[in-house]
Amino acid sequence: MKLALGLDPDRGSLDEIAGRIRALMDVKSPTGFLEKMKMLPQLTAIANIFPKTISAKDAPCKEIILRDNFSLDQFPILQCWPLDGGRFITLPCVITRDPRTGRRNMGMYRMQVYDGQTTGMHWQRQKNAAEHLREALRAADPDASSRVATMAETAGATVAMSHIVGDKLEVAVAIGTDPATTFSAIVPAPPEVEEFLIAGFLRQQPVELVKCETVDLEVPAHAEIVLEGYVRLDELRSEGPFGDHTGFYTPAEDYPVLHLTCITHRRDPIYSATIVGKPPQEDAWMGKAVERIFLPLFRLTLPEIVDINLPVEAVFHNLMIVSIRKSYAGQARKVMNGIWAMGQAMFTKCIVVIDEDCDVQNLAEVTLRVANNIDPERDIQFTLGPIDSLDHSSRLPNYGSKMGIDATRKWSAEGFTRPWPKEIAMDTATKSRIDALWKKLGLDD
Question: Whole-prediction pTM value?
């Protein structure tokens, strides 16, 4: 992940990117000429994140253009696990456009290959692109709201879209983009921030885009392979099962179908794929990178947060451990509710809140604190709300319960009147003497 994001793999840290995000958020309006001059490097860096469109003749993804006689069978698309419903494209950057604002959205959604010209599109209802569909249908059809509701309830499916063309939705898919752009497709960005901007920020240079051949969308010009096509508004087809990042197979459900209209690619394209399954798989390190890089954005909304840990084994959205700088009674519960109100963090099934002097990355220390610090009846909170579509244990698809655990020290203002004991720790002088003796005996290695 360090290499992918342009960092030194030996000495670099993902916290460097988090630091750049913090610096960007701290930009203040200059009050004088000298301050304006000092800001020039920051302003230049910001200017370099905006994507730019180049001509088709300069775009490597246009070296081969296939409008007829094309087939997905020319690519080595994998079936990952024995009970998968078929072959799946697993690392696609799926590009759509918000019909109200014109903003592009790039997300990563698996695509089951049905045949050489059609795929399933695993678009989950809470994703940004699903809202594109709802807005476009409302604008095009007065009865759209009921149509969307019926689709969601009966089929468990939603459709991402860019433009409505009759009864069709235009879609473009880029496979094999540069690593920072691919990574940007999975980050929990706010809907108003285009993923191409995030990619530009990570790359520290703009993403070059090129117009598609048969749909009104732009794609990364340096992609290996580009698929163009449309989804019919009234067409669903069974998609799955699929061995997912949860470690379980997600069952077959009805989802929209992508019909290809064109394929473009480099002369000798490299087909990019990833395997998900029981953690840790490759996506584990992508998820940990999201955790490190976007910590400043969590703090922007909840400044008391010191650190977070999304354990790989809990597949990220099932458990978040949060340390906070506690300043008032009930603050841990305020943080829980704040997290559940933040974008994709709304799917977090369990949140554990601990004090700032506990290292969230040290699960042994976290376990000790939680097991010792909670009175279960008093400190565990339950709530109902949206649940990740891949959660097979919730009472209903996409809806279920969540749990918050307040493992912080309790205050008298929270109704705790007993004395809170000090944690056992050796004094500094004794530790220093033992360290010196250890070294003297040759045991320091």
Answer: 0.85
